[in-house]
Amino acid sequence: EADIYQTPRYLVIGTGKKITLECSQTMGHDKMYWYQQDPGMELHLIHYSYGVNSTEKGDLSSESTVSRIRTEHFPLTLESARPSHTSQYLCASRTDPREAFFGQGTRLTVV
Amino acid sequence: QKEVEQNSGPLSVPEGAIASLNCTYSDRGSQSFFWYRQYSGKSPELIMFIYSNGDKEDGRFTAQLNKASQYVSLLIRDSQPSDSATYLCAVKIGDMRFGAGTRLTVKP
Fold it and tell me: Is any Cβ of chain A less than 8 angstroms from the Cβ of B34?
C-alpha cells in the first residue's frame, strides 16, 4: 500500500489567495512529482524533484512553485490563485526502477 | 511525436469480451513499462508492470511487450463493468512518462 498523502483533499478558495498544497511520503523515495489533471484529460507534469534541494519545472507552464527541504515533503504553492487554476492536483513519488505511487489528489476550485 | 502514445479511444466492449489497449513509445532504450488504471475522480493505481519482452499474466490482465516494435499492450479478459476506467501507459524514458490514457467502458 502506497504511503503518500495529500492535504487538503478538497479546497475552495477565492481569487488572489495564496495556497499551499501538501504532499508527504514515508517510503523514502528520492523522486517526487506534481501533476495537474482536468476531468477526463491527461496528466500534465508541472514540477518534479530528484532529491533534497532539487526542483525542476515540468512540461506544463505553471504559476506555482515547489520546494524540497526534506526528502519526505514536497509542497506546491500558488502565490495568487486564479479561476484558471481550478483543477485536480496529484502528487506522486518513486525510486528507480520502480513505479510511481500517487497520493489521493487535491481538488482545487478557485472562485 | 509524443514519447508515449496510446490508442485514442474511447473503447467500448461488452461484458465478458477481451479489451485490448495499446501503447507505443519513442525511445528504443526504454526498460520499464507500466499500466495504471484510473477511475473517474480518483488517482492512478498500478495494475501491471513489465520489463522483458513477451507476455506477463496477472489474473484477467496480460501485459505484452515488444521492444523491437516499441509497443506495449494490455489485454483484459472477461471484461467486467468494474473495469470501466481510463488506462494509462507509462514508460521509463529517462524518467517516467505517461500516455494520455484510453477510456474503457464495459457495457453489461
Answer: yes
Question: What residues contact residue A94 under an 8 Å CB cut-off, 6+ apart?
Answer: A29, A31, A33, A100, A101, B96
| Closest Cβ opposite residue B98 in set A43, A48, A97 | A43
Tell me the pLDDT tens digit for each residue of A20-32: 999 999 999 999 9
Residue A58 touches partner B, C-beta closer than 8 Å: no
Q: Among B2, B26, B13, which Cα is nearest to B101's? A: B2
**How far is Cα B24 from Cα B2, in angstroms, rounded to an integer?**
9
C-alpha cell at B94: 529517462
Residue of chain A whose Cα is closest to the Cα of B100: A42
The answer to whether residue B88 neighbours chain A at the CB level (below 8 Å) is yes
What's the pLDDT tens digit per position in A47-77? 999 999 999 999 887 789 999 999 999 999 9
Q: By 3-state DSSP, what share of chain A in percent is helix, strand and coil, each rounded to 5?
A: 5, 50, 45
